[in-house]
## 1
Amino acid sequence: LKNDHRAIPVQADRMLADLQTIRQFGACGNGVVRRAYSDLDIASRVWLARRMEEAGLEVSVDAMGNVFGIPPGDGPCLLLGSHTDTQPEGGWLDGVYGVIVALEVARASIEAGGPRIACVSFQDEEGSFTPSTGSRVWTGSLTQEVADTLVDDAGTPLAVARQKRGALPVAREVSPSLFSGFVEMHIEQGPVLDRTGEKIGVVDSIVGIRGQRVTFTGEQNHAGTTPMQMRRDAFQGMVRFVTVLNDRFKDVVGPTTVWTIGQANVHPNATSIVPGKVDFWVQWRDGDDALLDRMHEIIDASAADIAAEMQLTCEISSYSKIAPTLCFPAYIAAMSEAAEARAPGRWRVMPSGALHDAANVSVHMPMGMMFVPSINGISHNFDEDTAIPDLEIGLEVFAEAIARIAAG
Ligand code: GLV
Ligand code: MN
Ligand code: MN
C-alpha cells in the first residue's frame, strides 16, 4: 500500500449523487439556504450521520452539533472535512463539497482496506453566531461558556440554538487527540483558478480575519421639521466613517487586503425619521497580523473622530479575531505531487482569502487545504458554481494527496 497512490479508489458518481442529495436540504434555485441550527440544517446532519454509518464509520455528534465519522481501529488517523451550514444566501458547494469529498474518501478507503480516514462537518462555519463557531469551540480557541452567550440576528443565544438536535444522537465529545492531521477540500470562491484555467489550488496559507461592531448614536427626530444644522444623524455618521476609512487605509493596505461593511442596521429605519442610531459590522482581512493591528487602530480612531465631528456617540463591541495561518509544508508537498500527477501544469500554490475551519484546527495538528475553481469567482451568492468535471478532478487529486499523506 505504501507506494500505491491509487490506494483510495474513490467513486465520482457516488460523491456527486451525495452532493445532489444534501443540496435538496434548503435548495433555492441554483443555491441553498441552510443556516446553522435551522430545521433543514439539523435534518441534513441526520442524513449525513446516516451516510457515515452506512460507510462503516462510527458517528459522534458533539454538543455544538459538529458531526464526526470515525473509522474502525485504533491510533490517530487523518481527519478530512469542512462545513455543511450556509450563508443566508448560500451556494450549493461552499463547505459541503469538502464534507462530501471527505465522506467519499473515508468510505472508499474502508472498502479498499486503505488507511484509516475520519470525516467531519463542523457547525456554523458561516457565522450565524461568530465565524467558524463549531471548529473554534472544538479546538478551544473559544470556550463553550463564552460561545453560549453569543446571539444570532434573531437574538437567540447559542446556548438555546444548540439544544435543537432533532434525531441526532445524544451529544458525545470527540477529542482532537484522535487525529494526526486535518485536510480540507473547498471551492476557491475567488477568480484565480477560473481566470487561469487551472484545475487545482494547493493552499499555503489562510488569511487572518478581524471584525467588530460599531454603533453611532445621535438623536432621533422628525425628518420634516429638524433643520439640517440641528441634526445628529447617525446614518450620515456611518457614511462619513466609510469615506474617511477608505481614505485613511489607502497608504496602509497591501494589494490583497480587503475590508467590508456587509451588515448595517439603521434605527428605526423609517423614511420620515432622522436616524438616531446605526450599528454595523466592519470586517477586515489580510495575511499579515501586524497590518491587521494597524488597520484596527485606524478603524477605532476614525470612528472616534467622526463621532466627535458629528456630535454622535460611538461604541465599539463584539470584537472577533482569527489569526493568519500557514499550511503544513509536507501536506503542501504531497498535494503538489498529486496535482502534478493528475493535472500536470494546471495547478498552483495559492493563499486563501476566505476563512476556513482548517485555520482553527491548525492549532492542534498539521493542516492542509485544496481548492477547485469557482465559475467567474462567484461565491456567497446563489449563483456560485463549479463545473462538474472540475468537481471530479478535485476528488481524484484530493484522494491521491490523502493516500500520499497517509502513507507518510
Ligand atoms: C467564510 O465563509 C468566510 O467568510 O471567509
Ligand atoms: Mn466555506
Ligand atoms: Mn462561506
## 2
Amino acid sequence: MIRTNNNFNFLKGSYLFSEVARRVNEYKEKNPDVEIIRMDIGDVTLPLCKAAVDGIKRGAEEMSNKETFHGYGPERGYEFLRKCISETDYIARGINISSDEVFISDGAKSDIGNFVDMLPSNARIAITNPVYPVYVDANIMAGRLPEDEATDIENKGKIIFLDCTEETGFLPKLPTEPVDVVYLCYPNNPTGVVMNRDELTKWVDYARDNSVLLLFDSAYEAYIRDENIPRSIFEIDGAKEVAVEFRSFSKTAGFTGVRCGYTVVPFDLKVVSDNGKQFLLNNLWNRRQSTKFNGASFVVQRAAEALYTAEGRSQVTEMTNYYIENATLLYNKLTEAGMKVFGGKNSPYVWIKTPSNISSWEFFSLLLEKAHVTSTPGVGFGSTGEGFVRLT
Ligand code: MLT
C-alpha cells in the first residue's frame, strides 16, 4: 500500500465548514421548498464593488496586449499593490511598514496555513480555544498535536490551548508554560470580541520578554469602527520585533471568491535556527514563497489595487457598513429576545449562548429545522465553544 502523512489521523473527520455545509445540504435535499437564511460561514453576500470590477477589467485589458501582458509575476506580489498597502494601511496610520515587508497572496487562510513551514518542528504552539480551525489543523498536519494527544513531545512539538470563556470575556490569559508561538485573531473569529490596546500591549511585551513569535490574524480589521481598538498589531510599540500580521481582502471587499490577501513580515523580526544562525524572518518567508508559490494573479492584484483609490475606499466602507448594520441588528434583536450575546460590535460575528444549555449541534439543528437559519456550532471551534453558536 502507498503510505501517507500519519498526522492526518489526528484531524477531525472533516473541516468544520464542510461538515456544516454537508448537514445544510442534507436538510435542503429533504426540504427543497424551504428558503434557508445562511448565517454560517463568514461569506459575503454583496457583489464586488465597481472599483474592484474596473480593476479586473483594467488587468484583463493589460493582459490582452502584447506591450502590457504579464507572465510570471514577482512571488511577493507586484510593487504597485504592496506600495498601496504600505502607504494606506500602515504609513497613513503612523505605522512604518515598507512595501518590501508586505507579501501578497491568494488569501490569509493560505498564508496562515503555509506559515507552519516557518516554525521549528518541535515548537510549542499556543492557540486560543475556541479558534478558527485552520491554526490547529495546519499544525496537526505538520505533526504538532494538541497537548493531551502528543506522544513524542520532545521531537514533535505540541499545541497548548488558551481557554477563552465567558468568565475571561473570551480573551486568553498569558500562557503559564513556555511556548514558542502564539496565534491571536482580533476582531476574533469566532467570538467577535475585540482586544483593546492595553490587552494587546500585554501580549507584545510578553512576546518580547520571552522570545515568542506572535501570529496575528487581522482579517476582520475593516470592521473596527472604535478608534480605541487597534486595527494592526504594529500599532503597539515593539510589535515589529515579534509579530507577523495576516490580512485579507475577503471580508473587507468581498473577495472571498476573487482571492487576495497579504502578510506583513517586518524587517525587525529576527529569528535563529538550532545551529545559532540568525536570519530575518522576512527573508525566510520570501525563500518559502519563491519556492512554493508563484504569486497571486496579476488581474486580481489590479482589482485589489483599485480598492485603494478614493472611490474604492468609499465603496469598501459602504460594504462593511452594511455587514456591520446586519451584525448590530442581530446583536440587538437577539439580546431583546433574552439571549446572551457576545461580539457583533467592530466585528461581523455574533456569538450566542445556547438556551437551556443545550449543545451547540442541537441548537444548530433546532435553528435549521425551526427557523431555517444556518449557524456554526461553537464546539466546532474548540471545546470551550460548546454551548454556543456563531451567526454572521
Ligand atoms: C469563517 O466563517 O470562519 C470564515 O469565513 C472562514 C474563512 O475565512 O476561511
